[in-house]
Specification:
The protein is mostly helical. Helices cover 52% and strands 8% of the residues. It is built from 7 helices and 3 strands. A hairpin with a 7-residue loop joins strand 2 and strand 3. Helix 1 runs antiparallel to helix 4.
Length: 226
Amino acid sequence: MTSPTDEEWPEFHRRIGDAQQVHAFGQISLTYNYLEDVCSTIFDECLPTDPAFSTRLFNELNNRNRIGLLKAFVEANEKESEPKAAIMHFINCYDICTENRNILMHSLLQSADADIVAFSKRRSKPPFRENVFRLPLADLRATADEMAAVLDYGFALNAWLFRRNTPNYAFRLPVPESTPTALQISAIPQVDWSQPLPPEPGPLPEKPQKPRSLMTYLPQEGQRGE
């Protein structure tokens, strides 16, 4: 049995959007999964608890409580102003990325024209109306790119925190069990892994711009009514 071509799969009546639009949605979904994992490692570095407990706690909390608890610990325990500002910037960016991801991954597609994707998400609280979004493909891709920039920053910030918190740890790169993805390769600093890391963590990573929050679409009459 031969595999279907890109033009044949999925069947026409099962297609949600065109390949470029679905590609952008998929990139956002997978990038966010990495971002959530990086947030977990930063959570571990910032909480003054056993790492196993911190990881379990992170997994048991929803994102709103994760963010609130992490902010509280950083405000109370991080004494240096620059690292505190760097971590807070990551938290705020992660919060926006989480909201954007939740909108996109819990929405229903209404239409997918050549350049505009229209989708709706029902509000979780009364009056339970639907929020409607209309995004050009370029904006969907920009959302993915902004999320990837926050992910790069999270990788670098976590490495900085780890090196500051464990200055004498002689890190060795494990042999991968399979060929790493391009994303995993980009997250690996180009250093000599046969030698211990230098005792000083070096400069903090440069902060990315805050991602843009997805905004609901209202026609002119709707805007006047609101």
